[in-house]
Amino acid sequence: MISSARQGSPGQRDSEMLQFRGTGNKKPYTFSSQPQALSIRAQMDRENMCKQMGYTNIMHDKRVVRGSNFSKKPFLGKESSASREAEARRRAMARKKAIDYQTRALRLHLGAPKLTRGRQNVDIQTDVHLEELYDYPVSQTFGAQTEFDLELFSNPGTGTSAGTDASTQVDDKDLFDFDTEVTPIAEALIADVFRQAMREVLYEDELEARERQQRTLCMRRKVEEIEKQRLQYEDERLNKVIAEHTQMFDEGEKNEKARMSILTSGRVTDLLPKVIEDLNQEGLSTNSTINKLESPEFVSWLTEELQADKTKHTDSDDILKSIIHDLIKRRLDLYNETTDVKDIEQPEELFKEMESITLESDNKNELNNPTSDS
């Protein structure tokens, strides 16, 4: 049984050894699954790494790590088959690229193609006879003598005429002098040409003058339109100013009327005692007259008279006092003239008569208008 255990795997041998070691009632130890190594750490080949590679470029040495310190370092062990295939593929692509570049360079080369194997270029002369070029080539002169005594050959087709030639009569009128005959025609043509040229020049001058006149009229019309617009604007501005001044005048007049109505009876009432005192000093008033002057009816009448005389701007009390004095004096004079106050010894009787007349008129009015009282 031990020999069979030695022939098995190490895991089986370990399990069998544990079974032999168990004693008593203990059950033998068994595995539920075959034990496996967690990881196999590849060991670095120190011998190959320390092997001298000769004089080469150190940047192509695999033991030199290039790049960032934070990047993953390449594995310095043996290369895998995938990396070798990738390297071979890269070299093949580089070789193919170099061949394509060389082929393209040969195709674009403008010179003669390269000689094939076994051929050689030889310098040969293509011209059989060479001619030297001169600035002044060699020349020769030859002379020849011509004969003057040679008999000219006569035309066999022509001969002497045997008949009589006919004659033509030309009168003096048939012949004419060119200058004499053509000069008037030429002068007429030249005159017509000059006349037509003058017409054209005058026509062009007339067109230019007409265009200049049109420009002048157009400019004048524009100036008139501008002046018309300016006058319209000025008229509108003046109308606006007049309207504003009229409105201001109306407002001032309205304010004037409002200020005229401001004059109240209180101011008249304050100045009335002083005026009555002055009248007493002058001897123009009596007790009954004073009572009438102090009545509200007389004060309201006096206020209306002052407003009618436009004394609203009278700020001075002395002036207003003199005006009130004149009004009262004029009223007393008028009253004395109508009632002959000077002839009456007792003026009180006149006031009593006036009161009786006033009462009678009031009673008549009440009788005539009974509905108003009810």
Automatic annotation (TrEMBL):
UniProtKB keywords: Cell projection, Cilium, Cytoplasm, Cytoskeleton, Flagellum, Phosphoprotein
Region feature (Disordered): 1-35
Compositional bias annotation for Polar residues: 1-12
A Pfam family assignment: Radial_spoke_3
Subcellular location as annotated: Cytoplasm, Cytoskeleton, Flagellum axoneme
GO CC annotation: cilium
Family: Belongs to the flagellar radial spoke RSP3 family.
Protein name (record): Uncharacterized protein
